[in-house]
Design brief:
This protein is mostly beta strands. 9% of the residues lie in helices and 45% in strands.
Length: 135
């Protein structure tokens, strides 16, 4: 097994067409994916002193955070419009090995920053709404 390049971990947004075409949110330098789930504890006297969890229960979610250089692409403009309107949209995460995850996400946070004589950069945070599935 070889290490995969972080530059090949891409965040893409749907163009809204059917079938959807996903455009890369350009200029990303860092991208992070977190999959979390709540647990349902079903421990009883018969558990022998060990905690037991109910498989498949609880609430699962996917969080994505990214940071990069603002390039003014159409995909970036769509992310900004979604952040301003609170719109949930279709996104795709793709990895170097060819794996892809697709789902609906809400832009939870979008920050812009820049220094005098420096590039304009941004950070964003997405939270899943509904299932996130392999594509």
């Amino acid at each position: 097994m070889t290490a995969q390049k972080g530059s090949a971990f891409l965040l893409k947004i749907s163009d809204g067409a059917t079938p959807a075409v996903y455009r890369t949110v350009a200029g990303l330098r860092t991208t992070q994916l977190s999959i979390t789930g709540d647990t349902v504890v079903i421990t009883s006297k018969e558990s022998g002193g060990w905690r037991e969890l109910l498989s498949g229960a609880g609430v699962r979610s996917v969080s994505v955070s990214a940071a990069g250089i603002f390039l003014g692409s159409a995909a970036e403009a769509q992310v900004r419009a979604n952040a301003m309107s609170g719109t949930i949209d279709d996104y795709e995460l793709s990895f170097e090995g060819g794996e892809k995850l697709q789902g609906k996400f809400l832009v939870q946070r979008l920050d812009y920053a820049g220094d005098f004589n420096g590039e304009r950069n941004y950070t964003l945070a997405l939270e899943s709404s509904g299932p996130v599935t392999p594509a």
